[in-house]
Design a protein that fits this description.
Elements lengths: L2 H13 L18 H15 L7 H7 L3
């Protein structure tokens, strides 16, 4: 089992749910919700603690926070 690959796959799964207009959705086909956005940001924050190099501040700026 490759932990780094699994963490990157999880990150990519979450990022695919990011909506162009801001926020995150449960699936790529649904509109964003506050709940889905909260959980997506929590997952991204937790993944950063495992050493993923994505910049959470940049993501928050893109989401208009």
């Amino acid at each position: 089992m490759n932990l780094r690959k699994n963490l990157n796959d999880c990150y990519n799964f979450v990022i695919k749910r990011k909506r162009q207009e801001g926020g995150f959705a449960a699936t790529p086909l649904l509109p964003p919700t506050i709940e889905d956005t909260y959980h997506a940001l929590k997952i991204i924050k937790d993944l950063r603690e495992f050493g993923l190099e994505e910049d959470l501040e940049e993501l928050l700026r893109q989401l208009h926070f």
